[in-house]
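# nightly structure sweep
# worker-07 picked up a monomer target from the shared queue
# config: single-sequence mode, recycle default, output format = structure tokens
# input follows
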Amino acid sequence: IMTERTPLLHYRLAASVNDAELRPPEPGQAVGQPPGSSRQRSAPQRQPQKLSVFFGVVIPTLLSMFSVVLFLRIGFVVGQAGLYQGIAMFLVAYFIICMTVLSVCAISTNGALDAGGAYYMISRALGPEFGGSIGIMFFLANVCGSALYVLGLVEAIVDTFGKPEDGAALSAHHVLPSGYWYSLLYATGIALLCLLVCLVGAHIYAKATFLIFLVVMFVLGTIFVSFFAVHPRTITLPSPSPNGTDPAFPTTANFTGFKLNTLLGNLWAGYSLDYTTKTMMTFATVFAVMFNGCTGIMAGSNMSGELKNPSYAIPRGTITAVIFTFIIYILLCVLVACSCDRMLLLRDYSFLRDINVWNPFVTIGVYSSTLSAAMSNLIGASRILYALARDDLFGKVLSPAKKTSRSGNPWASVLISWFGVQVSWSFSPGKLNTIASIVTIFFLLVYAAVDLACLALEWASAPNFRPTFRYFTWHTCVMGIVGCGIMMFLINPIYASASIAFMLLLLLLIHYLSPTSSWGYISQALIFHQVVRKYLLMLDVRKDHVKFWRPQILLMVSNPRSSVGLITFINDIKKSGLYVLGHVQLGDLNTLPSDPLQSQYDSWLSLVDHLNIKAFVNLTLADSVRHGIQHLLFISGLGGMRPNTLVLGFYDSCCPRDMLLDPSMSTIQCGDHSGFDQKPPLFHFASLRVSSDRQDFGEFGDGKTLGPQEYVAVIADAVKMLKNVVLARYFNRFDRSEVVSPSFFSKGKKAVYVDVWPVNLLRPDSSSYVDTCSLFLLQLACILNMVRAWRTAKLRLFLCVEEGRSLTGSEEKLGQLLKDLRIKAQVYPVPWDQQVALHWQRQGEEEEEDYVNSFPSNATRLSDDYLLAVNQLILTTAPPAPAVRFLYLPRPPADTRQYTTYLRQLELLTQDLGPTLLIHGVTPVITTDL
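# output follows
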């Protein structure tokens, strides 16, 4: 078979044998889907599972791992690397694949294993993204591998029976015409034979592989016998040049039989030029060639659909095959080193044929193993394609591959795979070495993905991951991943990098295009176990420091449809902190048949996804809004991640705007209290739906269940719990896209301003702007200005001063403070003597009373005229109007009887100001320290 005209055969047969899966998944049910799934359809009853450990696992794995390596590469390895390094290479290679075998055995014994092999394992363990991307690559590797082996078989046949291109027969058995087009014709004929076998069914292939196994074992037996039975002889070496006249190489070498001198001459490495490619061999290049013969370990696990007991058969069968092949390879290395000259091993890769008791035996072995590999790759590719089509990861693109025969054979997938093999032949024969490297790298990537799947399941510590095969740890998984990665880059770093990039591209494509699967996502378990739980335990509240403070926000939402503007705005000021959307539904669980909140979570999460915000959702059922908010303030968050700021919509009678309303529907319902009591309009928006009873998102109550007294009591409760409080007014019509630039490079947008009034405007007798609350205002405004969309906004800080005081001094002090706090803002002194005069005029008209300098007594002394005057001052100072205003929110009065007056004063103060935040801070949040 190996002559001077077939120098590249040992490279062209480089791909590992297909890890074929021989039975299609159940036609009526998608792989891994539970009974009753939406994908389940009526289908013929699937064929019974009949294969035992030996026929279903051992034989396919042995043939996949042996292939033509057994006959063509042993001499190459020993001749170049020597016996010591050759055995070391096999030890390293088998160590790598054994790590993957342990992962395969662990996953295969962790519950029911359906058809699909490696694709099924990876997709059900890591999710559809990894499963689909690896599945496509596995399919392409099998298609190219089938083409590779078919063309390799054609070359072997042509070398044995083909005429030279000049038409002159060298001997009586050289009867076949040769040439490029003839080779493609022969390849098409062999591929048609493989296609017919695959179309008939997997059981026919199983019987054929058993016959091939018997042939290969018989040929292997003759090889071992030949080392002892054949007498020493001189063997003519193939010429490296077509005319055979190259004088630089000897023309003969010796088969010496078992001699000590021969063994001593083959112990150490002797890397030299490869006579077929004229390239210098190294440890890495020889190891890469040798490793191609150690792949194919998943051929047995991919037979899972045909096995009587996959969980029992796969571990035992795979490990048995791996041990057997390792022993055979090591024995052959020793026998070859003891009986063959180094020159014979270096110059004749088909020397086993020349020393065999009957030369055609090795030829038959090469033909049989190559044909088996071609059929295995073809049928495996069809099963992988069928599984991918059944799982609908690529939508209608793969829908034709779902068609099956009455017996369940996926004939459409077989035809598509066969067509892919035919397309692969559009590459010239000289390019098949490249395909071989890509195929091997794809297989290694699949093996690494299996190790990754097992590692993820182990690290996630999922209670349902209980494999009966326990001879593995996360260390073996990591070693398998590292080993496969090293081998990929050792074979070809460029192709390895391109393969990983291609896998990532497929992963992103499936992630964004495919629907959510019901398989589960290992990422969720890993995030919970390895990230969230572990680091939340490490997040010690006793170690908190003011310089690392960030907002942890609980935003109470009554009607999410009219609160879109506020929801998106608060998302901008969270600064990577905790953000929780809270909602209270009135009710008593004792009087309800079930929890009404469970059915609402999906709608809320759909809203979060639609708005593209990073927020959690927390719903509660309570007898009153106040008690519900108390519940959420107590229980929201976990460990060191708990809300420190409560945001409420303002208590007013503004008419809301449904930001999710269908343009074809113009109805907007108005109520008395837009912050809490608006009922959402009837409307369907994708997965975010509002049912006819208007309770999908819940209500804080009907009519005026929440009164002004209770509203202010909620603020007071939050202050008692040391929570910062923010009241948001006029955000029901706030549209973020109309205010801020969508991109940093956007042009043509008008200037955006954010105004900050850090003085307690309800306390004109105290104009301090450096207390905790004022600094909290400055911090939130600075955080907003740090967001990319708001980065071009200009902060304007308004300093209210009286003419009797030094304007310059106050401005300089505030400017120095901003400099110390690293806040970039423009300070505007605002005289407010006229407004303050209205306040003191009211004080002179009233009877003097003894009171402390606190709000309860001051509340009765604030006139409507003063509040409206301050409101106009804010409204008319420094045009144009800002996108949002930050105002000082004083704490509620201690006397609960003044709650209504307090709320009315806030309403007058903020009347017609546009989007406004009233902010009260209770804890230090800013520092000048490094």
